[in-house]
TrEMBL record:
Main subcellular localisation: cytoplasm
One family name in Pfam for this protein: tRNA-synt_2d
Domain Aminoacyl-transfer RNA synthetases class-II family profile residues, every copy: 106-332
Family from the record: Belongs to the class-II aminoacyl-tRNA synthetase family. Phe-tRNA synthetase alpha subunit type 1 subfamily.
EC number: 6.1.1.20
Gene: pheS
Reaction(s) the record says it catalyses: tRNA(Phe) + L-phenylalanine + ATP = L-phenylalanyl-tRNA(Phe) + AMP + diphosphate + H(+)
Protein name: Phenylalanine--tRNA ligase alpha subunit
Cofactor binding summary note: Binds 2 magnesium ions per tetramer.
Originating species: Epilithonimonas lactis
Phylogenetic lineage: Bacteria, Pseudomonadati, Bacteroidota, Flavobacteriia, Flavobacteriales
Amino acid sequence: MLEKIDDLLVEVQNFQSSTKDETEQFRLKFNGKKGIMNDFYDALKQIPNEQKKDFGQKINILRNAVNEKLEELKSSTESKIILEKEDLTRPGFPLELGSRHPINLVKNRIIEIFKSIGFAVADGPEIEDDWHNFTALNLPEYHPARDMQDTFFIEQNPDVLLRTHTSSVQIRYMEENEPPMRILAPGRVFRNEAVSSRSHCIFHQIEGLYIDENVSFADLKQTIQFFTTELFGKSKIRMRPSYFPFTEPSAEVDVYWGLNSETDYRITKGTGWLEIMGCGMVDPAVLKNVNIDPDKFSGYAFGMGIERIVMLLYQMSDIRMFFENDKRMLEQFKSL
Ligand code: PHE
């Protein structure tokens, strides 16, 4: 009897199965109701007491071997089943290419144009203090021009706010650097305005600043003319006198775009002219605020809004689209 068990042990250990059926046959042979193991358990009851210990141990070894083998077969047939079910020749899921946001496309293009004439890119925080957003820009407390910019305040006394324009970066840059300087500062700005198809409480500006000896309004005009020709391929611009506390004299620049579509009518308010920026010669009081000698240096600054330019270039009629992240809109810019 004991030898028979040894033989079975070898048989179990060598057993191989390639199908579920074969494995099931093996299981029934040993562990089935009428299987070998049950026969041995029955036999154990009949056996003389002094042999029970040896016999019992042998049966245990065999039982463990059988169960181990079954486990092993089970996991190998399971992985085989997975292989049979999965179609390994099926192509994978395509990885979708992202696209650039139209605002960034135009922003990058504008940066490129100004880089080609020597402007560097500067950066500043979106959360600002009163000094950089207002006071240093010649907008002291109670200055009526503060009302032009509906400010989102985060804290008051001392004021912490969301910058209302990128002009704050002018101040930060001039505080940290010596002239000559020629920078561009793109970024988001925030104003507490009613949201409509034409205006939003978040939008993007690009600030420009050029400080050196003998910078004149003619330099400003030429630079803007160069820029609009590069960006629009059209060069008809006009400058209207305007007012900003931090520039003197100040102007607003319009580019003639034309009226060929409904969107053109909407964005240009039916005039065909697009107002692209405010600009002017940096006020000597601002230079003093950042310790630059206004008798030695002069300069110009401009600030343009990106959204309206993008809307005309891509014929988009609602500014809110820029902030909704609708894939159907974004996907149209894939190849750009
Ligand atoms: N900061 C002004 C605005 O937001 C634009 C501007 C910038 C005007 C620089 C003049 C010089 O309206």
